[in-house]
Design brief:
The protein is an alpha/beta fold. The protein has 7 helices and 6 strands; from the N terminus they run H-E-E-E-H-E-H-H-E-H-H-E-H.
């Protein structure tokens, strides 16, 4: 996980976007220079681009074929995930930006293993601020890089799914897929 703060200035330029079919619906990924800026179960790259922090938002979006080399690692990771390699998205770089806590929280999310479910309270602890449960929930809500930053693995203390930008049905499907693979 990187942030523009660590680079000292905002990143601009074009990004590429492609949509692939998944069992949970169309999945779009926006990539710039090999790093995922945004992704999720939507066929609208423009909608996903709106989730990118303004300091990282691309100047333009270039729609490309899912087999375009510039998106190959991200697209391969999505396809591999749905073929059973649940850790594949973890290998793709992600670039998100916001305040210090959100960046740390997104980094902590990337360490939640496939099939592992943790509560928002546990997530706040892993992000380094045990009392910041609401801020941890906010980090999930502001996560622009779904699947690559697996906020779907965070659940309510009572075991309920909690919210998910792409709907509880998608979240439940992902968690079931991961639980079945974990055995």
């Amino acid at each position: 996980m990187t942030s523009s703060d660590s680079h000292g200035s905002a990143r601009t330029g074009a990004a590429q976007a492609a949509t692939v079919a998944t069992p949970d619906g169309p999945f779009t990924v926006i990539v710039r220079e090999g790093a995922v800026l945004a992704s999720g179960w939507s066929s609208s790259a423009e909608e996903l681009a709106g989730l990118i922090h303004p300091r990282l938002r691309p100047d333009s979006l270039e729609p490309v074929d899912a087999d375009d080399d510039r998106l190959a690692p991200a697209v391969r990771a999505v396809r591999a995930y749905y073929e059973g390699d649940l850790a594949a998205p973890r290998s793709v770089p992600v670039e998100q930006d916001s305040g210090e806590f959100l960046v740390a929280a997104w980094s902590a999310l990337r360490d939640v293993k496939p099939g592992e479910r943790i509560t928002y309270t546990e997530y706040a602890e892993r992000a380094g601020r045990p009392a910041a449960v609401r801020a941890a929930a906010s980090a999930c809500a502001k996560n622009a890089a779904a699947l690559f930053v697996p906020c779907h693995r965070i659940v309510r203390t009572d075991g309920g799914l909690g919210g998910f930008r792409y709907g509880e049905g998608v979240k439940e499907s992902l968690l079931k897929r991961e639980a079945a693979a974990r055995g």
